[in-house]
Design a protein that fits this description.
The complex is a heterodimer of chains A (450) and B (241). Chain A is built from 13 helices and 24 strands. Chain A is of the alpha/beta class. Classes of the chains: A alpha/beta (450), B mainly beta (241).
Chain lengths: 450, 241
């Protein structure tokens, strides 16, 4: 592992070290008032709880893992997963889907299977608010009582640093989606690539702690690979708000230099200043350089899922706006007993990745189970970030990182036990590529099988 | 056979398991799940000749299918005697005792290759889980001479009943209980610890069909003999980190 990479890898942690995670500058006061206007006012069509009810809002990597492991460790719990989607669509591996290296079926999974196998209830609805005093989650399909509540709404996009008006924001979301949230975004980008005839394809990398640190760089590699193999006279222009590639930089830089010299242009310190959609021009960087584009996937800053703000359990932090106002070790909302926030909406400077959320879900599920069974907490365990990034497809060649986290008091001190495998060439890179697929299959098994 | 080469499962109420093998040791677990006797099977080479413990190459990954036709296990002759009487704990909190390696040096161990995290396992196409020699650095942990699952980087201490050293694995690998006889032959007789066989057969139906002709065939218990081969001869691709 290269020392330079350790330093870059620790950049976000260094930022984290400057702010205690429980220190709150803009934390709203707890609002325990009943709001009869919120929700439908009628009970959700669920049988009476047969044990302590744990409601988990959000069926991403975090929610699925918390649901499974809470039920596993507290079989008497009545676990309900509230999810607005009718099927699961995996963000990890989606970059390979964009270039046709995996099909939609590989990254699409069945919520009903997860619920059947793991003996919890999948409730297809959107949560629209909570009544903390009455311990009720309001959903589009009625009210659900809870004893324990886990909010895992994931991220939302935050276009405010780009100073665009709402009309432009809406156009960006629709015409140039980031591709880090919904399957429709991924489908749109895939179509863009299939129709692409040449010119610049812009990818932006936001500042802050954005979802999946290496993903934009991986995406650049895979799109370049796609252009190269399909003899498309195009270039991936990476406008990075950060001063350098934020993770696995040696691997990505060498891939750009050696494999994609004519297909990738990497521009560091290129925060977006303005976007002109009519003329397809972007102004970026302190020197306000101008970049033209044929097409793009604009990845803005991220923030905590809007639901947290609606529920009054969010605060701004050193990285992003409106993430969970929680204790970093128990995930419990400050001042709100047995309401938790987990997954990418957490405020800690962890890598917002599938493996992080999944390992965190194991821990939080066990913690909630221990509260149910013995009314106590368990010893904190660091989440584990294991992250593979493909630098080419078919055959896949990849690089990887594994890391855990350490604290000083309640302040995140940074990454620990960091290991990097940045060799994408030859057999090592091919093995990394195979491990990437095996990692994904294992993760899907973990969430959807018993 | 030395009775001492076996173990006691400690927890709960006593329950004597009468094994079809020579085991008559008292085994105690909550309900007997942490030890299960299977067919007593002799380890043989490709020609059907008995494997002799003294001929094993140290630190080589050897594969044999046990206790089921479709389940591969890993046998290793370690360079030194293992620890003994190691107290281990399953994910559900049940405790059991792993007595240690067998053979004259007390260095031969065997484990199910099904990772306790998400069932990555040795198969004929590619293998992500294996013992990594002391001279091999691994990404999974600072130590060497450990079992590593390259899929999600869990590391297991093969000297201590495959106790988890690092990574997401929630419990040790299931141990394959071996016997070493006076004529230097090796036998598999049962499985100690929490296994993942049931989940494995559910999760890998298509793979088992491809490799063994279907789940039903893969679920058959191995009888009489099990062929021991080097991992490199069993699988097309060994992936280690």
């Amino acid at each position: 592992m290269n020392r330079r990479d350790i330093l870059k890898f620790g950049a976000i942690s260094a930022a984290a070290a400057t702010a205690t995670l429980t220190g709150c500058t803009t934390a709203p006061k707890p609002d325990n008032s009943v709001k009869p206007a919120v929700g439908m006012g009628s009970k959700a069509p669920l049988p009476a709880a047969k044990g302590p009810r744990v409601v988990i809002v959000g069926g991403g990597w975090s929610g699925l893992s918390v649901a499974k492991y809470t039920k596993k460790f507290a079989p008497n719990a009545d676990v309900v997963l509230v999810e607005q989607r009718t099927q699961f669509h995996s963000c990890p591996i989606s970059n390979l889907y964009l270039v046709g290296a995996v099909d939609l079926e590989f990254i699409t999974h069945d919520y009903l299977q997860a619920a059947r196998e793991n003996k919890y209830t999948y409730f297809n609805a959107s949560a629209i608010g909570i009544d903390k005093a009455q311990k009720i989650v309001k959903t589009t399909n009625g009210d659900i009582d809870y004893d324990y509540l886990v909010l895992s709404p994931g991220i939302d996009y935050d276009y405010s640093p780009w100073n665009v008006d709402l009309a432009t924001e809406q156009r960006l979301r629709t015409e140039y989606p980031a591709g880090f949230m919904s399957p429709s975004e991924h489908m749109t980008i895939k179509s863009k690539l299939e129709d692409f005839e040449g010119g610049n394809f812009i990818i932006t990398v936001p500042g802050g702690n954005y979802r999946c640190l290496p993903a934009p760089y991986e995406r650049a590699c895979l799109i370049a690979d796609y252009f190269k193999k399909n003899e498309i006279d195009g270039k991936v222009l990476i406008l990075d708000a950060n001063h350098d590639i934020t993770i696995k930089s040696e691997g990505f830089h060498s891939a750009y230099d050696e494999m994609y010299k004519d297909y990738v242009e990497y521009v560091p310190s290129a925060a977006i200043m303005s976007i002109d959609l009519e003329n397809k021009k972007v102004i970026a960087g302190e020197l306000e350089d101008e970049y033209e584009f044929t097409d793009a996937a604009f990845y803005p800053h991220v923030r905590g899922g809007k639901l947290l703000e609606v529920c009054g359990v969010a605060k701004d932090n050193a990285f992003n706006k409106m993430e969970g106002n929680i204790d970093p070790f128990t995930y419990e909302v400050i001042g709100e007993k047995n309401i938790f926030v987990a997954g990418d909406a957490r405020p800690m400077g962890y890598s917002k990745s599938g493996n992080t959320s999944n390992s965190e879900g194991h821990y939080l599920g066990k913690l909630i189970a221990e509260r149910i069974l013995n009314n106590k907490d368990i010893k904190w365990k660091s989440p584990l970030t294991v992250c593979y990034s493909a630098v080419s497809a078919m055959p896949n060649h990849a690089i990887s990182v594994r890391a855990e986290y350490e604290f000083k008091g309640k302040t995140l001190a940074g990454f620990t036990n960091v290991e990097l495998s940045q060799e994408w060439r030859g057999k090592t890179g091919e093995n990394n590529g195979k491990a990437l697929m095996e990692w994904a299959k294992g993760m899907y098994r973990d969430m959807f099988n018993a | 056979m030395q009775r001492r080469e076996f173990f006691k499962v400690v927890a709960g109420v006593g329950a004597v398991i009468v094994a079809p093998s020579l085991i008559t040791t008292d085994l105690r677990a909550d309900d007997g799940r942490l030890y299960k006797a299977y067919n007593k099977v002799q380890l043989v080479d490709g020609d059907g000749n008995p494997i002799l413990a003294s001929k094993l190459v140290e630190e080589e990954n050897y594969i044999f299918n046990y206790p089921f036709v479709g389940v591969s296990s890993i046998l290793i002759a370690l360079p030194e005697k293992t620890e003994t009487n190691v107290k281990l704990k399953s994910e559900s909190g049940e405790e059991y005792i792993w007595k240690g390696g067998i053979g004259k040096k007390g260095n031969i161990v065997a484990y199910s290759s099904i990772c306790s995290h998400q069932m990555t396992h040795v198969n004929k196409a590619e293998s992500f889980i294996s013992y990594q020699k002391r001279c091999q650095k691994t990404m999974a942990c600072p130590r060497t001479g450990v079992m590593v699952c390259a899929s999600h980087l869990s590391a297991y201490d093969v000297h201590k009943g495959s106790e988890v050293i690092s990574g997401p694995a929630p419990q040790p690998l299931a141990s394959i209980v071996l016997e070493h006889h006076d004529d230097d032959t090796l036998w598999a007789v049962g499985v100690l610890g929490a296994d993942k066989f049931h989940e494995f057969f559910k999760a890998f139906k298509s793979e088992l069909k491809e490799q063994y002709g279907g789940a039903r065939k893969a679920k058959k218990k191995v009888k009489d003999t099990a062929q021991l081969v080097a991992l490199a001869d069993f699988t097309k691709d060994i992936i280690q980190y």
